[in-house]
User: What shape does this take?
Amino acid sequence: MLLRALLVAASDDDTQPLIEALRRGGYEPEWKRVEDEAALRAALITHDWDVVFCDYSMPKLDARRTLRILRETGDTLTAIVVSGQVTDMMMPIMGGTATVRVLLRLNPDVRIIVASGSNSLTNESELAAAGIKHFLPKPYTAETLLRSLHDLLHGSS
Assistant: This one.
């Protein structure tokens, strides 16, 4: 199954494990890696992406800036997965609930996977109230993420 994936990552070493996991999960990824703002903007103009995988912190572009660019360009993604600290409910700059709110402002129909090592039911309740149906407690496997991504893209969620 074709999956058009834009990977905001600092190096190919960061992307290869994800691409391999997508293939193992039955996807045929058509993908592009970008690592700076100019490349991200160009990729958003030239292609329609099903999903964006974004590292939280990189030398030339971080997740917060990526979200702002998505908002500025008016991109209407089906899904976004932010890896690293931004998906952790306990992160210091912008926690999971705040990230969800930003993404929903960008596109009210966006489907989101949130992951966290937090055991706080309050945070999970806040996410459920925001309409989040895909919550992955850390640690999780690539296969678990792939199942959630498949359900998110092809299920009723």
